[in-house]
Design a protein that fits this description.
Blueprint lengths: L3 E6 L7 H15 L3 E6 L11 H8 L5 H12 L2 E7 L7 H10 L6 E4 L2 E4 L5 E7 L4 H7 L2 H14 L4 E8 L7 H19 L11
Parallel strand pairs: 1-2, 1-3, 3-6, 6-7
Antiparallel strand pairs: 4-5
The chain binds flavin mononucleotide.
Length: 206
Amino acid sequence: MRMQHLIISAHPNEGSFSNALVDALKRDSEHNDVKVVVRNLYDLDFNPVLSSEDLAKIKNGETPSDIAEEQRIMAESDIISLVYPLWWGSFPAILKGYFDRVLTHGFAFKVDQDGARGLLTGKKAFLHTSMGNSVEEYENKGILKAFRQIHGQEVFGFVGVEVAGHMFYPRISDSSPEMKNKYIEEALGFYKTVMLDEEVVDIVTK
Ligand SMILES: Cc1cc2nc3c(=O)[nH]c(=O)nc-3n(C[C@H](O)[C@H](O)[C@H](O)COP(=O)(O)O)c2cc1C
């Protein structure tokens, strides 16, 4: 069966580096005969607020329809790419809310007497974080590792998805078009390395 690649975009601007990367990932996957589904959370006007009504419905096994649609797409996907700018050291609110509402108990994970267990096994995630600061600044502060842990393992790792790579794109607003193109080419090359099961060298774009 054809592989499905879910690309989640959480940048509000059409002309951003993030959305240029989304377009390139889409083209590249389609070129390799992979089915692509892009979910641009701003275009969808995705409601990011997990409400008490949502919680009550989910508890009763009645998943709200907008959540069920995202879950259906995620369940059918083999590869998940997340493309977002770093805002206050974290995800943009719309993306944080996507995780709050979509990765529900019973769909993404289960907690029982043996503890928590991820249910979305067999999938690979690639994270792409664009940022205003340099990678060195965050390395020196000792929090680059925390970003990998909190954005990658505490979300995807927790629900059983393998984090295949986490790319950081530094000082992106000051980067030249050539530099941005180089980052995009490196990102596409990274997917090929992982998919061909070659030796994986995690890249931190500097
Ligand atoms: C609300 C807000 C918060 C931000 N917080 C951070 C931050 O914590 N660290 C950082 O390096 N850059 C921060 N930035 C800069 C953005 O990460 C940067 O502008 C963005 O990655 C550009 O993305 P693009 O090239 O895809 O348009 C922030 C920008 C905004 C608008």
